[in-house]
Amino acid sequence: MAKTKAESVEKSAEEVVESKPVKGVAKLEEEGDIAADYLEALLDIADLDGDIDIDVENDRASLAIVGGKLSHLVGRDGEVLDAIQELTRLAVQTATGDRSRLMLDIDNFRANRRKELTKLAGEMAEEAKSTGNSIKLSPMNAFERKIIHDTIQELGLSSESDGEDPHRYVVIFPA
User: Fold this and answer.
1) In this model, does residue 129 exceed pLDDT 70?
2) What's the pTM?
3) Domains defined along the chain, listed by start
């Protein structure tokens, strides 16, 4: 029997999904090791102390530089941290040939920010529920918006990002 056009498109979509590579834990650990080597060299060049913790969480390599006096590597609102993370991702991509989604934390900045944003999302969700109005938050980077979206979803509400970077923000909708 001849396939209909819809069946052919559906089959093609399934093949694309099946052929899309999913990074395994071993590949993510390799990314973490490459990133750690890069960051060690960077710390040595800058003559800074710090230990590097490597982990795999949420299908991405996760690194944290702890110890020493590192707050200047975070910068105002994490701007320097974001730049170092991007350079580290590029170093991993150069070594592996694959784009990296690794996350970097320095001096617990991201961990502390995650706690603050989770609390903010909970408070804003309550406000949206009690007033019945949508809540528009201040502009945030992609990392921060993701935390808000994930928390809002866990609370049973919905949210969406609006605007253009660097002024992109989250809108929280009442139930």
Assistant:
1) yes
2) 0.78
3) 25-107 (3.30.300.20), 112-173 (3.30.1370.50)
